[in-house]
Amino acid sequence: MKIANSPKSRNKRDKNCRIVRRKGRVYVINKVNPRYKARQG
Q: So where are the chain's domains?
């Protein structure tokens, strides 16, 4: 999992990416291609 400066940019890479907020952190999750997983905060 990458710690991303801007998860918005990683969200645009793949159509399966979703931005989720959990416990004050921003996550990019992708079930189909897990290499896009990212976190901020």
A: 2-40
